[in-house]
Amino acid sequence: MNGIHLHNRVAVVTGASRGLGRAIALKLAGAGADVALLARDVQRLSSVAEEIRQRGRRALPLPCDVSSESDVAAAAGEIRKAFGVVHILVNSAGINIRKPITDFTLEEWHRVLDTNLTGVFLMCRALIPLMRGQGYGRILNLTSIMSHVALPGRTAYAASKTGLLGFIRALALELAPEGITVNGISPGPVATEMNRPLLENPELHREFTARIPMARWGTEEEIAALALYLCSDEAGWITGTDIRIDGGWTAQ
Ligand code: NAP
């Protein structure tokens, strides 16, 4: 995989202010891509943009709530102005609210679905017009082991991430004739801010690690390496599927 290069490619990464989105943005830039970075925290986005510029690539930090139609339209306009085209879209923005269903407010349910599922729809709808006509395109969505198995307290999150699987398959069929692939990456636990409640609770942390046959959490670097491969020319015949990267969690 050392040979993968993305020179002259323009990538858009949501959730790029931290965690997996940031790691993937840096990985794509390291392979030569220019990157538009989307999330709500402008300060963090600017610091990721600086890291990318230090790698000699262009970076465009854009404050954007992916669940807002107007924010996404405005971001797409800025991307069109700055780059003209898009080759790669990575939808990493996501949230998790963990609680029993009877404790969920409707607002919380909507917030999870609006970010994790509707946000992906809005981003794809806005950016596919910029991807068309090049015979190449890559759309990657961060799904989850919760797209395949479940845990109590994850109704909204699992519904949103399982919904993405259907979205991925249908969109892959729509875009296959144009050379644009659409796939999911389903990670097991990685130590990011999203998992702070697990990381800060030694008992929960131990319990999670015990569920992983390889007996350790994944790393941002491992997820980013898979993302880079799926964005490469070499991965051009992989579409409409979802790749689990979970130390064996879902093999059980
Ligand atoms: P994280 O560290 O909490 O990062 C989440 C990112 O999403 C942040 O950049 C956040 O930025 C952004 N975001 C959240 N809501 C947003 C919104 N409405 N509009 C725009 N950006 C928004 O989580 P992570 O671990 O990197 O997770 C990334 C993706 O991987 C998520 O989709 C998650 O479900 C999935 N995933 C993670 C794991 C894991 O173990 N870490 C496992 C399976 C799947 P702002 O707050 O600045 O907006």
Give the gist of this structure.
The chain is an alpha/beta fold. The chain has 8 helices and 7 strands. This is 3-oxoacyl-ACP reductase FabG.
Strand and helix layout:
Blueprint: E1 10-14, H1 19-30, E2 34-39, H2 42-54, E3 59-63, H3 69-83, E4 88-91, H4 106-131, E5 137-142, H5 155-175, E6 180-187, H6 196-199, H7 202-210, H8 220-231, E7 242-245
Parallel strand pairs: 1-2, 1-4, 2-3, 4-5, 5-6, 6-7
Helix pairs in contact: 1-8, 3-4, 4-5
The structure holds NADP nicotinamide-adenine-dinucleotide phosphate (NAP).
The site of NADP nicotinamide-adenine-dinucleotide phosphate (NAP) has 29 residues, from helix 1.
Pfam family, one: adh_short_C2
Family: Belongs to the short-chain dehydrogenases/reductases (SDR) family.
Domain Ketoreductase: 9-188
Your description of this structure?
Residues 9-188 form the Ketoreductase domain. This is 3-oxoacyl-ACP reductase FabG. Helices cover 44% and strands 15% of the residues. With 252 residues, it is an alpha/beta fold. The chain has a single domain, classed as Rossmann fold. α5 (155-175) links the parallel β5 (137-142) and β6 (180-187). The two termini are 29 Å apart. NADP nicotinamide-adenine-dinucleotide phosphate is lined by residues 14-15, 17-21, 39-41, 44, 64-67, 92-95, 115, 142, 144, 187, 189-190, 192-195.
Q: Per DSSP, what share of the residues sits in E-state strands of 2 or more residues?
A: 15-25%
Number of DSSP-assigned strands? 7
User: How are the strands of the biggest sheet laid out side by side?
Assistant: 3-2-1-4-5-6-7
CATH architectural label: 3-Layer(aba) Sandwich
What separation lies between the terminal Cα atoms?
A: 29 Å
Total of DSSP H or I helical runs spanning 4+ residues: 8
Helix- and strand-based class?
Answer: alpha/beta
